[in-house]
Amino acid sequence: MHIHDLIGIGFGPSNIALAIALDEQRQAGQAKDALFIERQPCFAWHPHMLLENAHMQISFLKDLVTPRNPGSRFSFLNYLHSKGRLQDFINLQTFFPSRHEFNDYLSWTASHFEHQCTYGEDVFEVLPETDNDEVAYLRVRSRNESGAVQERLTRSLVISVGGAPNVPECFAGLKDDPRVFHSSHYLRELAKQDAPKRIAVIGAGQSAAEIFLDLHGREGVQVDLISRAWAFKPSDDSPFVNEIFNPEYTDYVFNNPTGQREALLQEYKSTNYSAPDLALIQEIYDVFYQQKVTGQARHRFRRRHEVTGSEAGPEGVELNVRDLETGHTDITRYDAVVLATGYVRDTHKQLLAPVADYLPEFAVNRHYQLYTKPEFKPAIFLQGSCEPTHGLSDTLLSILAARTSEICDALDQTTALYAPSPCKQEVTIS
Q: Which cofactors does this protein require (predicted)?
């Protein structure tokens, strides 16, 4: 069986940025045999949240490569130039492209690496491959749409699978009900509904705000926006606060004791969680203000409320909603419920369960590499799962370029471990 230098699980922005950095190494004469495995049939970046008029919350300069290599042909500016839109974009006088356009940029970049990516395969397991009492390689097992299993060996692994939908416990019993769905599946699942008239949106972040406004623009739809918070709080994108997304701040967070890291995450949580853009908040406020002007209460903002239970019935989904101020609970029926409740980022633990005994507490070093026992030779890196140790930027685009540079440097060290010596030749495992 062929042995890869590197296998990347997932081919979203993080691993595309890594593919760019590896391509630069190849051009410099340091080629690595890298393969990426993506479960989607083709490249797609949050395809079911590509809403009309939705824009990026991050500057286009923090693309896949510019902070690391401004001269790269894979920069957002070169993408615009290749598409013949650079002058027009300049005339927009904005740092924030539409989400549709940034998705097209990512797709354009991914298309340059199709020869290195296998689409339509879902990695479900990573096994240890032993040789003389040490784990020499990793066996990556994936399954395609027809159910056929593919196995590949690798010296290094980079897991970049993004977050899995966070479903609150009160909705756990409705996970198979098509009328209850996570915001990450919004457009797809909404299209399956039979003309829903009353919809609940759970959450108070960017996704909840965007979905509320999208539903507001659909004729005949009534929306209850349910949030434990009293008010929407805008994301803090002021210059000094934005410095927490600089690479050097990652050093600062990582080098702090665990308790202080947690305090730093809480202090700046408003930059990323439950923090929509101010412009969106103003639009939502105007919607509710105009309702007061006209006297037509189409939507409700159920602030300081939480869902304590849910039940599916033939006429709709019934939610037990408690007023956090009074303690009063009422039952309201909805045609559909959208969970804009964020993500959990522990999928890597499921994939790596067969090798967990070699990975002390799944702890990572500064370069995003999992600590391993001495008898474990392969290197495993995590992208997007290290927020507790590396800070709020870990799940965002801001740090991609710098992070891939660090991972490439660490990969060079791993590759050197496998270099054949005059007295020992590499053995191919079949």
A: FAD
